[in-house]
Design brief:
alpha/beta; 7 helices; eight-stranded mixed beta sheet; 19% strand; 40% helix; single chain
Length: 238
């Protein structure tokens, strides 16, 4: 399995608060230490992610935004764009795609990380699938071509941008691995900030995350990693 070096600039397209930390928080922490500049784009406000019948959507959205901001502070991420769509309400629309295109053109990332929309062996949350597919489309061809969302260029002074690669996490067919052996503690610390989403005791969560990362490292045959996060890579240019 290939390894992936830290890029200069990376943008995460995240369906819900906490998906970024659980899916690739170790990679984020590692690359931040190596100098990567990150932008988190959180698509929904997570306002339905609870079984507490006393909770309101408005209050939960406030809690989850605060938790997300605390989590990225742990990881060392400086930039966050909060799109604020409702939990479970992501659609492949002109508006949603355009907001991702705007962030790509504004931030000019080398790499975009998003959730893999393709699952044949299991079912994934609809927001996960929609966010991943729209992120891919936003990268290519929409952010590249000047006449897509030309108001960004003519009205906002942005320029087109060609994303080099997308790394899809939560994939069933990984071909790239990142060694998170030195940053798994940071990943766990960032995850712990999402208290509204924690349903297991702290020790159980740690064991679950480490077990998953060990399995990912085992799939990355020949690397010798203790813990890893894995991705499916799509290149748009070389």
């Amino acid at each position: 399995m290939d390894q992936f070096e830290a890029p200069e600039r990376a943008m995460l397209v995240i369906p819900h608060p906490d998906d970024g930390e659980s899916g690739c928080g170790g990679t984020v922490a590692k690359w931040v230490k190596e100098g990567t500049e990150f932008l988190y784009v959180v698509c929904t406000n997570g306002d339905k992610g609870t079984s507490d019948l006393e909770m309101t959507r408005e209050r939960l959205a406030e809690i989850r935004e605060r938790e997300q901001r605390d989590a990225i502070e742990v990881l060392g991420v400086q930039q966050l764009t909060w799109l604020g769509y409702g939990d479970g309400e992501l659609e492949d629309t002109h508006d949603f795609r355009g907001r991702l295109v705007r962030e790509i053109r504004r931030f000019q990332p080398d790499v975009v990380l998003a959730m893999d929309p393709v699952h044949t062996q299991s079912h994934s949350h609809r927001d996960h699938r929609v966010s991943g597919q729209v992120a891919l489309d936003a990268c290519f061809p929409y952010a590249r071509d000047a006449l897509h969302y030309e108001e960004h260029i003519r009205g906002e002074g942005l320029s087109t941008h060609k994303v080099a690669s997308v790394l899809m996490w939560g994939t069933e067919t990984p071909d790239v691995a990142v060694d998170i052996s030195d940053t798994i503690r940071t990943k766990l610390e960032a995850l712990s900030r999402h208290k509204s989403q924690v349903s297991m005791p702290e020790g159980d969560i740690e064991e679950f995350v480490k077990r998953w990362a060990r399995r990912s490292a085992e799939r990355a045959v020949g690397t010798g990693f203790e813990y890893a996060e894995t991705f499916r890579k799509i290149d748009f240019r070389r």
